[in-house]
Amino acid sequence: MSKVLQGLEPQRVFHYFEEICAIPHGSGNEKAISDYCVAFARSHGLWVRQDEANNVIIRKKASKGYENAPVTMLQGHLDMVCEKNNDVAFDFENEGLKLKVDGDSVSASGTTLGGDDGIAVAYALAILEDDTLEHPELEIVLTTDEEVGMKGTHALDVSDLKAACLINLDNECEGQILTACAGGMKNRGAFPVRFVEWEGLSGMLCIRGLKGGHSGAEIHCGRANANRLLGRLLFELNKALNVGVSELSGGMKDNAIPREAQAKIVIRPEDKKRFSEIVSEFEKNITDEFNVSDRNIRIEYNIETEESKNLTIIHPADMERILFMCMQCPNGVQTMSMELPGLVESSLNLGVIRTDMENNRVLFSWQVRSSKKSLKYLLSDKLAYMTEFLGGTYWYEGDYPQWSYRSESPIRDLVRKTYLEMFGKEARIDAIHAGLECGLISEKMPGLDMVAIGPDMKDIHTPEEHLSISSTERTYRLLCEVLKRIKG
Description:
Blueprint: H1 11-21, H2 31-43, E1 47-50, E2 56-60, E3 72-77, E4 99-102, E5 105-108, H3 115-129, E6 138-143, H4 151-155, E7 165-168, E8 176-181, E9 183-192, E10 195-208, E11 213-214, H5 226-240, E12 244-250, E13 256-257, E14 261-267, H6 272-289, E15 298-303, E16 308-314, H7 316-328, E17 332-336, E18 344-356, E19 361-370, H8 373-389, E20 393-400, H9 410-423, E21 428-432, H10 438-444, E22 449-452, E23 457-458, E24 466-468, H11 469-485
Parallel strand pairs: 3-6, 3-7, 7-22, 8-21
Antiparallel strand pairs: 1-2, 2-6, 4-5, 5-24, 9-19, 9-20, 10-14, 10-15, 10-16, 11-13, 12-14, 12-18, 17-18, 18-19, 23-24
């Protein structure tokens, strides 16, 4: 295999990152990457445990002189979000990522990179391999299915873990020390629909070119949601025309702001001109509304020239309920924190809409996040109330707790002091609206002192995701130095 990242520093970190990227490891498909980590541990003579959820725990003894230092956990997740551009042919189940280097950035061609959280795994393996480093006893905890409700962490058995402090490596901002995060859950709605025969001109209506992004880290940016825009456009069309909808499809993951959405439609031949006028006017309006956050929004459509008489569409009454949900369900930032100015307190993202043709239903999928438990369940109740009021079925899964700030934290103080001495500037002590596994782990291991750090990454959960090479190197040096200083 050609080594695209060969020569980048730190060499062993990027060596392992490239090997990780060559192994398909989307959420739910982590057995191969889990086995790879187990094989690594065994080849280096390290204690390792792999559980039924494919979580991997690797232990390395303390360096000489560190026998009495507190056991330290390094933690990250094995899975990645699999998103790609619509025009890219790529099989996440079987293909390795196609990496590229551009200046200071590593990215993947047309797909997500999986720096979230492949770089954590690469850091851990490089540290485990290097016997010249000074460090306390290490427990490396690599979990599965983090991106789909932290299922691996829910299943994690911590009964044999001894760590007193934890450094989570799932942050995407150098110089930021995270000390708290939001909790969250995945929320589902299913609406039964009937199909009726119709006649007219069939076609496709697509919304594309949105920026998207992480539904926690970028929810405050005001970016357009393709699913919401599609519902709004269909609503506008139905105010003036009689438009049938055969199928809806938008977004790929509930924790990613959807970049594309489309509908199979049917219109009357006599409405073709008016349809084009409404779509054009709508595109002009939303381009103006989102001219800062989403400058490349475009609406594409293709209408057949020949009328068909044996088409099927969703019953108009059922489609009204679907459009009502698209238009009226809460979305985006809901409350801002009064304790930490500038921090989103609660939000939700309508990430996926799918027409389940086999079971005659339309599925909605949201990601709810909140740093207040009560508000998380309030948003869930709102979605349940609306869904069930409109005749649908509602449920949620992957519920995980928030990670609360600790007033006293030796590991936070150590990382902060080390960062200042190494780089001559203060690190930011911060909280994040995205979810980290720290909340669940702290429930399982009360009293565990923890922080989250990581190198600069941009546009995660999108095909524009890229990882800073220089920041990866600086953060690795910081991590090694912090481990060296954990001695008392």
